[in-house]
Amino acid sequence: MGFFDSEVVQQEAKKLFEDYQSLMQLGGEYGKFDRQGKQIFIDKMEELMDRYKIFMKRFELSEDFMAQMTVQQLKTQLSQFGITPQQMFDQMNVTLERMKSEIQ
Predict the structure, then answer these.
(1) What is the distance between the alpha carbons of residues 93 and 45, in angstroms, rounded to a whole number?
(2) Phi, psi of 80 (to 5 degrees)
(3) What is the pLDDT of residues 22-50, one digit of tens each?
């Protein structure tokens, strides 16, 4: 069975995408949140980033050709912006840490 044929992989991908979309929509109102609302938003973003890292690690560790192609495509797309996947995650963490410091 291929990596993308797994029902678990399909469900997690769908859930990650839906959760990301919801947070991005909610993020448009971030400036209107009170301190507690901002903290909840940041916590949810951190949780989503952790889930995404795990999901991407599954791709990297898989021997499935399509999973490896997906990893390569991500690397290629990010390289157009001059960054690696690790740098992308690092920058997201920097942003979330800055957001945390601004609400304290």
Answers:
(1) 10
(2) -65, -20
(3) 999 999 999 999 999 999 999 999 999 99
